[in-house]
Amino acid sequence: MTFPAALAEAIAAATGAPFGAAHLATVGGGDIHQACSVSDGARRFFVKLNTAARLSLLQAEAEALAALAASGRVRVPQVVCLGVSGDKAYLVLEHLDLRQAGDAAALGAQLAALHRVAQPRFGWARDNWIGSMPQPNGWHDDWIAFWRDQRLGYQLRLAARNGYGGTLQRDGESLLADLDTFFDGYTPAPSLLHGDLWGGNHGYLADGTPVIFDPASYVGDRECDLAMSELFGGFAPAFHAAYREAWPLDPGYAVRRTLYNLYHILNHANMFGGGYAAQAARMAAQLVAQIR
Ligand SMILES: Nc1ncnc2c1ncn2[C@@H]1O[C@H](COP(=O)(O)OP(=O)(O)OP(=O)(O)O)[C@@H](O)[C@H]1O
Hints:
Layout: H1 5-15, E1 23-29, E2 34-39, E3 44-51, H2 55-71, E4 79-85, E5 88-94, H3 104-116, E6 122-124, E7 128-130, E8 133-135, E9 138-140, H4 143-161, H5 166-177, E10 191-192, E11 202-204, E12 210-212, E13 219-220, H6 223-231, H7 237-246, H8 253-272, H9 276-291
Antiparallel strand pairs: 1-2, 2-3, 3-5, 4-5, 6-9, 7-8, 10-13, 11-12
Adenosine-5'-triphosphate (ATP) binds next to strand 5.
């Protein structure tokens, strides 16, 4: 059976209700996947498509969405099914009519509630992805070592392989060597994170209910989600205020924010090149100046 008939059959099997001749419409292409909407006239779903070889990106997304949903603290699109048909990998989600404005304060409070759910260790059972780049995980007790080896160090080495050397590498290595300095008097607790919480990964239902999507989840310092939420803007002030009211931040966050966002800027440099490597070098220099 060819695509999208196979997709329609998978949806029917997953939902236990007939799904007729599917009309698949492209609604956009992110940088990573093709975003589609599929409808038989009666029901509608949101479908992310990629090549069959990239099924693991969609599997990781489905796993993260399931973990966030299981927390019961935040609203995410429900996973319907995922699979491969021919040369295509697909992830089918409930279709949500998302808008840009809504109850931002509720999102702040919900994210704090998600972060407050106690987790035993840092990391994640499986390696996953941040954008289209691998994100190494495994379970760890030592957050600082995790951030050094699985996050900053990993991206820094990728950057070196991509030709981004010079001060970025010199300052990056200094940071890795002195990472403890940034955690004086602060012991992060393990929290389930969205992991890629930039403004483009949240929206609101018609009644104002906030929704977060497109996660790259793992268990880490809650400050990572907050740092990313501030990196490119896009969240209403009420979001930030409500989070801090629900769970105030340690004063050291002001500096660690740059440390945590350096990971994402390095990742952007490794994915897109352009000015991101220079931005990463500036951030690393700024952080090294804090050590001296
Ligand atoms: N469940 C959903 N129902 C309807 N629309 C959705 C749903 N999830 C996401 N969208 C919309 O589709 C867009 C693309 O979704 P998403 O960010 O998951 O794709 P992506 O390809 O991973 O994006 P990027 O490459 O930019 O990270 C979102 O910006 C959002 O507006």
